Amino acid sequence: MECERLASILLLSRQSRITRNAVLTVWISEWTARLRFVAQIAPALVALAGCGQYRTDRSPGTIQVDIETSPTSTDPRFATDATSSRINELIFDSLVKTDRNGQFVGHLADRVEHPSPTEIVFHLKHGVRFSDGRELTARDVIFTYNSILAPESMSPKRAGIEQLKSIDAPDDYTVVMTTAHPYAPALEMATEGIVPAGTSLPSKENAAAPIGSGPFQMVGYARDEAARLERNPYYPYPSGAPRSILFKIVPDPTVRALELAEGVCDFSGNNIEYDVLPWLGSHRFLEVSRTPGTTYKYLSFNFRDARLRDLRVRRAIAYAIDRKTIVNTILRGTGRVATGMLSPENWAYEANGTTYSFDPTKARQLLDQAGYTAGSNGMRGLRFEYKTTPEGARLGEVFQAMLQRVGIELTIRTLDFATYYADIQAGSFDLTSLQWVGINDPNSYYMVFDSQKTPPHGQNRGYYSNPEMDRLVEAGMSTVDPKWRKKIYGQVQQLAAEELPYVSLWWVDNVAVMNRRLVGFDAYPNGSFRSLATVTLSGPGGGGQWQ
């Protein structure tokens, strides 16, 4: 079977003009990881062979979700990473949320009005209660936003609502947001999780989440270990739904896979190694769900390095990476080669832009033109450091092999997540690969490519600067008419494809592995966990699984 797989990869190599050596590098890397995995799980598989048909080693009303890292913050006023956002979405409500199509819909707001281009009025639902029984009113909304804006809070969320001129509450159930100028993505400002008035700022990073009005409340949290959620007694939920969720921090992907196979873990989303998916799918009590996603994987450059400011070098790197082969082999087809930040499902998606198919010959020509000629050893004196986490090291090795073929030396530096994230935020890297999760409005281009949005004011971590890009993204932010916005963002996407502040890699499919006792999980394109609040449990006693 694997011989057939290698043959198919070699056929693909001829179609994409990659040499057999490069293909074998990818294939060997893939198989090395597989053999390492088999060696690690062998003892556990022997032990599992003697297990009974049914396991009941957890509370029937509890589901376990394995995640790879701790949330950076359990307070919605400070959380910016995907893990934090996905957990906090189960605890806190916001004025609006996005639906499965990425459109904003009322959540705490029963009705939303736009009386003028600079004003939005939210009419709140009555009877919404925090998990301690207090009713949520406009006073809590005003407090939440003011605490984000307060300079002493130093909230990273402040940049996302900087266009907010004022926020007022004419009465207990009405909130009025006003912007200084017409601001097209204004509804994005209404997605902040609401905390009760008077909630103090977090005094330590290991603190449990404050109370919210969402379907769950956090009753326990130990950083790097676990977070336990239990039902908000004032929030309705379907009969047979889980009473609690244990989010267990499991950094090792092998352990995550084993916990699914053993029935210890009920759900793991977008964090299982692709090689292991067929093995997990062979377990009849597990379901592997795969749906098209909007998560955008990219390669980022540091523009403070003069070598990387040279467009010819960036283009050479883009041509040297065979993204199609990586998607079809390393990712096992669980992704789509990306042309830009916005996926084809987005209303502002632009299909006409510069693309970079795999072409090592063109990459070498560009490097020659940039003055980096190959020496007798085939290398060009171009050496970059690629920073990554342990989980990203394997992809880094593939990039390393592909860039070496055109004469670029890439050294890989692997860091724990906290150190890695701090370095990336500080712009301390040459190249790195990250992903954006849950992109809805194309205003994201402003936050990552505008020259004024370098950390801590935004997410332009590579310090990219182009006056034309600044002009376009700022125009897109202030243009309310959807027709003109689409035209502007079409130009933004074309310029980004031409200039390459990022090399677009792929849009990641949402791949969730879950125990079949979870019934009714609804996958969202952005990988949201929100439907864990509405799934129901099947099987004896509402828990356990069959092996």
Overview of the molecule:
By secondary structure, the chain is of the alpha+beta class. The protein folds into four domains: 1-50; 55-68 and 215-285 and 516-546, D-Maltodextrin-Binding Protein, domain 2, CATH 3.40.190; 94-191, Alpha-Beta Complex (Dipeptide-binding Protein, domain 1), CATH 3.90.76.10; 293-508, Dipeptide-binding Protein, domain 3 (Roll). The chain contains 15 helices and 21 strands. Strands 12, 13, 14, 15, 16, 17 and 18 form a seven-stranded mixed sheet that branches. A four-stranded mixed sheet has the order 2-11-10-9, with no helix packed on it. A four-stranded antiparallel sheet has the order 5-6-8-7, covered by helices on one side. A hairpin with a 3-residue loop joins strand 9 (216-222) and strand 10 (226-231). Helix 8 runs antiparallel to helix 10 (360-369). It starts with a helix and ends with a strand.
